[in-house]
Amino acid sequence: MAGVEDLGARLTGVAGRRVGILGAGWAGMAAAVELADAGARVTVFEAAHTLGGRARAVEYRGLTLDNGAHILIGAYRQTLALMRKVGVNEGAGDIARVPLELNFPGRFRLRAPRLPRPLHLAAALLGCRGLPFAQRVAAARFMRAAQAMRFTLEQDTSVCALLERFDQGEQACRFLWDPLCIAALNTRPHEASAQVFLNVLRDSLDGTQRDSELVLPRRDLSRLFPLPAAGFVGARGGRVITGCGVNAVHARESGFEIEHARGSERCDAVVCALPPYRVAEVLAPLTAMHTTALRIDALEHEPITCVYLQYDPHARLPQSMVGLDGALAQWAFDRGRLVGQAGLVCAVISARGAHEQLSHEPLAARVAEELGVRFAGLGTAHWSKVIAEKRATFSCRPNLERPDQRTPVPGLLLAGDYTASPYPGTLEAAVRSGVRCARLLIEGHHVHA
Q1: CA 104 to CA 370: how far, in whole Å?
Q2: Across the chain, how many H-helices and E-strands are there?
Q3: Which domains, and CATH codes, for the chain?
Q4: Dist. CA 405–CA 434, nearest whole Å
Q5: Lower Cβ count inside 10 Å, N or C end of the chain?
Q6: How many alpha carbons lie under 13 Å from residue 103 in its C-beta half-sphere?
Q7: pLDDT digits (tens, 9 = 90+) for 222-233
Q8: What is the pLDDT of residues 129-150, one digit of tens each?
Q9: Percent of the chain having pLDDT more than 90?
Q10: Mean pLDDT, rounded, of the chain
């Protein structure tokens, strides 16, 4: 560790400093954009040949698919701001903003009208279809109670326990709260953190009308941010090196040495934006990180599985995004409506479940059968592709202790959706962590207290 204790003094202001970023996912690229913009000499190392980490593009049959269906909301302000910074915006047709709508065709529909806060939420809850009036009133009372306690619990518990405490009915849970929990936290309600769920409700449903809007990508996930971010970094003298996995990080007299697939490189500071299950291995040479690395290694993870089904080009879902009640998948997305891939449907299965017992072919057949029952006009799928991210996010359990972006090693920071944040494992959590790492370096406050 000799030589790194004085990095705090040397790195106050990063202009001209060498910063190595491990991983070109959304967290790593967020850090890279902010640091490059501040004048740092940024080098991003990425093992894969595609940028985006666990939210990236996948090529198949001449089509660009995504390894997960990530829907943004208007409350993801840091993500949307950074996307605009690198040239991605609504005006260019890269994304589309639509009022919040949860639609399970023929069973349930909630739509937030374009009204000022808090009228849009009250109108959405009281006017939703598919719930008995008493359950609609109970849902509105639950949100008022959450507002009264400032969306803060004295003691964290499960989402199921929270909903039971506030007398939320079976149908309200089935069509409203449970789907929101699984979509946002990627963790089943009986295991999910009620406090994190309340944080999500506070910043989305209880925010402004624009905060609650759905932001639907009209590009693949790599082109939605990581690729434009790489162009932004390159234009400011930085480098993004793909196909170059990092093996280890060593402390040296002049900072750090990053050992990677093509050799090694010296730098003044490091932002580790690797998946959590790789952190302990790569940071093993840094003995001060052992306790933190072991805690990260102990995190449990949840999968996200996407089942792509190609139908005839004229086949369409009723909307870009529809809920699937009583099916393996929770949501189905019409890729024709979203990104112009006519007849392509993506069914998404979040969190753990019975689907994990099926191999890809039987799983695709089961999902196609369930879609066929609900949407007879789809016809028969010509081909299928299953993309399963087995460790897509951390399991967002109650009272989970997540590591801070600062570490016991001066000049070394952690970025990723699993690090300290009020949010679950979302793109917003990832981006915010990367931005915070960059700002700690820029402001010289990165030395762990």
Answers
A1: 14
A2: 16, 20
A3: 7-57+222-299+398-443 (3.50.50.60), 100-212 (no CATH), 301-394 (3.90.660.10)
A4: 9
A5: C
A6: 17
A7: 989 999 999 999
A8: 999 999 999 999 999 999 999 9
A9: 79
A10: 91
